[in-house]
Queue: 4 jobs
Job 1
Amino acid sequence: MTTHDPQPSRSRSRSRWIEDWDPEDVRFWEARGKRIARRNLALSIASEHIGFSVWSMWSVLVLFMSPRIGLPFTPGEKFLLVVTPTLVGAALRLPYSRAVTRFGGRNWTVCATAVLLVPASAAAYFVQRPGTPLWVFLVIGALGGVGGGNFASSMTNITAFFPQRHQGWALGLNAGGGNLGVAVVQLLGLLVIATAGDTHPAYVAAFYLPLIVCVALLAALRMDNLAVVRSDKGAQREALRTPHTWWISLLYIGTFGSFIGYGFAFGLVLQTQFGSTPLEAASYTFLGPLLGSLARPFGGRLADRWGGALVTAWTFVAMAAGTGGLLLASAKGSFGLFVAGFTVLFVLTGLGNGSTYKMIPAVFAERAGREVTDGGDATTAFARARRLSGAVIGIAGAVGALGGVAVNLAFRAAYGSEGGSGAPAFLGFLGFYALCVAVTWAVYLRPTGTLRQLEAPPVRRGVTRV
């Protein structure tokens, strides 16, 4: 095992760069690395949380849009409004992940947080102006998509801070804290409707303006850049050539794509299928994303113990069963069963998000272990594994977010006609979850699958199962 001075060198201290970082070294980690990593994790969660809130803000603002405030949009137009930021956020995840390796995690977090002032300010101004055309809101919604990119840059950055043995829990906390932004903005919408009525959507957007400024300043003052993240310019290109990148991305479509797609659409689905008022819809929409976000770290922890592939496979089995429950609730017109079924699905997506992301560092750590067994240098192999993990996290995050676009487009098609039903959309989701179960088993769990080939006695402390 390579040893280091527990005091990391900082030849560029003014810009808060850490030049020497090896969290797999237990002495380094306990002496100083753990404290630095946890500080950066806390601020990363805060930035990602606000990014998710701004990204998913339109799932709340559309509940206010009605002829009462001079914005008489149809259900199809409202679904288009929630699709737009989802699509832009997905598209930005790859460049955001790459930006960390170019500019540094601390520097990019400051920039990515501060830019959220633009869509939040525009939403606060225009959403209260009667007669504003749809295209203006589509532009603002697209600008809000920048919040969705924060996830990829944040996860890529945090992966490098933690040793592989702690990454399931750390990534789960980081992502779960960010995902909570969906629930919090919806809870804020409920609070506004309950206290000020359903004609003041600007209050929701304006609430975030001082928070954005505060988190950007804290990130500038207290976060760090890791030189090891920036040292490999070709990690993303190499990750694109790795089959695991695409298998895991497919699974992440099923978990995170479902989480963000349902989070954006749930309130509109309740309004369209059951005729819920804005207050009724807002009263239920926050609960699912809240529980799903809280479940994500536990999905990572379960994966730390049992293996990400096994937890992910059983999660998809349960999601398929839950979707069957939604079909039953829709057929019976049962509002209570429908809300309960959706809430269970949110929890399952959270568990699956954590377990699927845990598979990423585990796959590359196992591969690094085999390189060391074949005579390679341990420090080099595991540093490369961390860089590739960060790249795959960005790619899987981008592809997974496209699942949210697909979910909302499916709902838009299902509810687009007069008297439309969500049943066709739910049948499509059920089929996709069945596909994910089959892929997880075939690639990672069957006796001749990749997982069985990767499993070997660990050559370095912290190597765990996929």
Job 2
Amino acid sequence: MIDAVTGAHIWADRFERDLTDVFALQDEVTVAVVSAIQPKLLQTEIAVAVRRRPENLTAYYLFLRAMQQFYLTTREGVAEGVRLAHRALELDPRSALVAALAGVNHMQNILYGYAADPQFDRKEAVRLLGVAMNLDDGDPDTLAWTCLISAFMVGDCESAIEMADRAVALNPNSFSAWNGRGWVYRVAGLPEEAIRSLECAIRVSPIDPRLHLTFVGMGFAFIELGRFDEAIVAGKKARRQNPSYSGTYRCLASAFAHLGRDAEAREAAARLLELDPAFTISAWIARGGQSNAKLLTEGLRKAGLPE
């Protein structure tokens, strides 16, 4: 695949299979091509948006730039994501997807411990959830984000599950839909289904820049199932994807502590505190979405993190 404007090489691959069932082969190639091309095209569009002069930005390019910041999961990235998403929404107030992204950024401010005013961010996240759903409750990517706000900020897992299930039904090839569904089921206390959904997310977008979030979600679910070795594998994969994501070290600290690997647990806990210096277990629980994370919380205590 070549960019017709610039001549840049975007993507190429080859497929070699035994020709036993031509229709199964066709389906397999289709899924493989879609899962490879979609995230690559999005990243190419984001790169173009970042290079554009600020005075030429449209709502869509602002949305793409907000997505780039969303991927970083840093304090500065979330703050810039909020700013860009709100600017995009001012230019296109009828965009449900932009409203949902703005809401998720406010949610991230709380979940990652970045919020200067958590009450404001929570209210904004919930307000934007309503805005997005009123504008378009049938878009799978919008549903993939609003279901997260419903689960984490509202605590309404029943509605969140309904949104997540509808998202994957509308687009079973959407990474956002499967990833959102996985996190929602994890929050709802259904770790087996969470893992199944997150595995689907990886299959449909194996090079997605949000994979660190997916692997951490799997790690949390593995911990609740007592599968601590698998949680460590998932946590290490997340760390390779994004070593600055604090959730990775909550996963690793808890899993190592449960296995009695105290030195490694303390090392992960120390890294967590570097990224989130104000972290306490009680504050993290208050951020939302942790009512069914009993073993995860127990492991954080065993790792010596402050109460």
Job 3
Amino acid sequence: MNNKQTLLRNLPKVDKIIDLLKEKEFFKDKPYKEIYDAVNETINLFRKNILNETISSYSLDDIEIEITKLLSKNLEFNLKRVINGTGTILHTNLGRALFSKELIEHLSNSLTGYSNLEFDLKTGERGSRYSHVEDLIAKVTGAEAALVVNNNAAAVMLCLNEFSKNTEVVISRGELVEVGGSFRIPDIMELSNAKLVEIGTTNRTHLVDYEKAINENTSMLLKVHTSNYHISGFTKSVSNKEIADLAREKNIISMEDLGSGVLVDFSKYGIKKEPTIFDSIESGMDLITFSGDKLLGGPQCGVIIGKKSLINRLKKNQFLRAFRVCKMTITALEFVFKQYCDEKVAVEKNPTLNRILEPLENVLDRANILKNLLETLNIDSDIIKTSAIIGGGSMPDASIESYGVLIKSLDSMQLNRFFLKASTPIVGRIQNNYFIIDLKTIHSDEYSIILDNFKAFLESRSL
């Protein structure tokens, strides 16, 4: 009998290995089905490697090590924490706005027991889930009323379906935006059964273009803030106030899809001004929609604010049931808007605002900490100036000064591949063949994780 046949014959049975493993501490609290699948897959892998002659010997310890690795991997959650070293604050691929630890504590307290989600504690009767945030949002924004749905696309679609079904909506050609995932304003209009009327050109639209387009079948003038791209040069657009005034004169609805709604004037902090929710309200727009998880720094949702009579009509639309938000979103959104009652508190406590508006020296301090930690592992690095971005389809032409740590002594591609496979992955940038971690998006509780990843990489190279 040759060695290959001997190795195959000596492979232990699945049940035998399970009996050996179930007494070991690591396997005691693991689900039997997961253990069985990991053992079976590992034995099949060893069998394949024997047949391919990629292994010439093995022991039970070798098999157990592979089973442990595979089981650990299989038990990991697909959605996991990632270290964002890209410098993009609202990184769409990495989850956009972060929740503060205070918000997580509030969520834990509210969601680990029953709540008054749809129960009116004053009357002891059924209530509305929206009542928990409507008045608060109206108070903070200055709007007459508010409504929350599951994202901004749903907010736009709900409004169009309610007020412009089978009628015409006038919009500038330069505002027919496409957002992430190939969702386009014209497609949202079509789904809502509104009829699109394009006016102007890509770069220039005048008030007279709106006036000429209005007829007896026009129901709405729609303004879409181009938050995810910027056109410069020979351009012309019509202001919110002009659109709102014209709509009021013609007895039709004016609406703005603000996209990345912001409640803080960034220009006060030395950053390029982004149109605020307050600006839209003051312009006289009847309805305004914006996202919760972008510049607002809250959970994913769509917020609709505006005239009370219009919001009341939206509440009766049948689409609202399909677009409604869960208790976690309501809880998180209330917490975030309560912070906005005091701008100073919001800037300090809201992670998104804090990272956008923090002093540059704070970023440099974090860069020095990381560089010093890497020196303890004899990893050569430099602190470099970088340009962070806000991201999330917000303020495309705005950048923020930042600092990064550039890794000099390790291969960037090898490092990147290793970090992406780690239990807590690090996503950084590769520039000029160097791996860079931008400290704009690194938090103090992440240094130890980053250092552990570097240690593991160095150990992997020595094997």
Job 4
Amino acid sequence: MHVVPEWFQRLYDTTGLNFSVFYDSYDWNRYVSGLRMTLLLGVTTILASLVLGAIGAWLQGSPSRLLRGLIDGFVVVFRNTPPLVQIFFFYFGLGTMLPASETAAGLREPLLGNVQWAIVSLSLFAAAFNVEIFRSGIEAVPKTTVEAAQALGYTRAKAYRYVILPLALRVCLPALNNNLVNLLKTTTLAYAIAVPETLYAVKQIWSESQNVVEMMVVLLGTYGILVGVLVWIMHRWERALRIPGYGR
């Protein structure tokens, strides 16, 4: 159990390469805490953006011109503005407008904290792209298939849920894969509002231990592994849903 910490401690003593996160328990705990926060941000925003994207794509086909206009406006705004600006808008803009409660110490406690606002803003940012991705998949579903579902008595909502969306998902999974990978990498922007994710934790470590290069290597390796795992999961999902001869 102590072989790895001792090896990195000896590496530091002999070469000066200070990977303190691997031999110092305090730095290690901070790094793991940041990694947990990154995983929380990644999982919640991925799931939320998928749900919002699927709902938004369905509403784009609504007979209501108002609903279609609202979804189109949402897509335009969130696709054409930087995600960091969106995070600042939600946290410093809307966050200050919401009611706040007072703690026992008399301090002002906002309704939503920095972690919640990061999840909201990043989910909406990715959802705007997911709406268009799902829409492209829906358009690839043959009209005869939709008509057959309607002929069987499916309502518009049930036809979308049980027939159109499952087929559209198989077509748009490659594009969805790219967007979700970008979303995972974009979670580092939560650092700007002091969300204690991996980049935030690593920055604290290298500020105290003066080991910027070493911790940057750790940071790059961490995100390389996280993205690799997500790509592997998405590829497994794509193979599991593949219908021979469909969407190819």
